[in-house]
TrEMBL record:
Keyword Transferase: no
Protein name: Fatty acid desaturase
Keyword annotations: Membrane, Transmembrane, Transmembrane helix
Keyword Membrane: yes
GO cellular component entries: membrane
Pfam families the UniProt entry points to: FA_desaturase (PF00487)
One example GO MF annotation: oxidoreductase activity, acting on paired donors, with oxidation of a pair of donors resulting in the reduction of molecular oxygen to two molecules of water
PANTHER family listed in its UniProt record: DELTA(5) FATTY ACID DESATURASE C-RELATED (PTHR19353:SF19), FATTY ACID DESATURASE 2 (PTHR19353)
Residue ranges of every copy of the Fatty acid desaturase domain listed in the record: 21-294
Amino acid sequence: MLTLFFVPLIIVNTGIVTSPFMLFAMYILAAFGMSGIGMGVMHDAIHGAYSKNRKINKYMGYTMNLIGANASIWKIQHNVLHHTYTNIEDSDDDINAPFFLRFSPHAKRYKVHRFQHLYIWFFYGLSTLSWITVKDFVRMYRYRKMGFFGSKTEYRKEIAKVIAWKLLYYSYVLVLPMIMVPLAPWMILLAFVVMHFITGLAITTVFQTAHVMPSTAFPLPDENGIIASDWFIHQLATTSNFSPKSRFFSWLIGGLNFQIEHHLLPNICHVHYKKLSKIVAETAKEYGIPYHTKRTFVEAIWDHVKMLRQLGRMEMVPVPQSKSQMPVK
């Protein structure tokens, strides 16, 4: 996946690409590589699952920085908040959406949500563009308030690192191509946007079809901020698998079709999920615990659409005001 991302960009930056067709072909190929890095390489690495060697995991985690995002911010958002408080309103950042999107029955409903199942795909496509420009900085500011940065100095150093990595990224995916390719700058910019739209649509659809589904639960904490169920049962209740029999598809998306196994055992490399899924499914059945799975990815997307449509019509189920924000540190 690293090769699929970097080789097309190297070809572009050598200046041998002279036609719009070749330009867009290279950026589209890079989009598939970027998606693979996001769903497979960096995802395993930041969970400490890519290798037994911590240094290798650390360095491979930096591949996220090489595609414009930031490994440190992702680790807080994904490893800490999403994996700990899956599908819990105000605590799981994966369902904390801007006002025009609604991913939880406990989020406020607006009239525009009636149509979100139609327009949401456009915003899924913009997700990584938002990520590499604004979202990382917004999250850093919020995570500082939540106590994830010990001091102002640590926070400022992290901001400097984020800016430096992003400048490096923009230099080889946007600035250098504008210098080397004998085409209009707006065309380079458009190819860049297309690359990110494909990546954003792919990654966000894969992640959201694992949790925002008619079959998954959206638990609420009690007045003391406590979730009633056991953490393992909570992960099974809030997560769904799809396309479990397709080895190629599983390889393509870094094993994220086995999200249940990933949530239960996040430090295990995705290549083992298929075998583990049989054990997990049998154990869940033995103890009468739900094990959600869809036969194909298309079926999962269709159910996701149904859920989005349902969320656009159902009234809000209030979160207990006193303890709506779960503790994070």
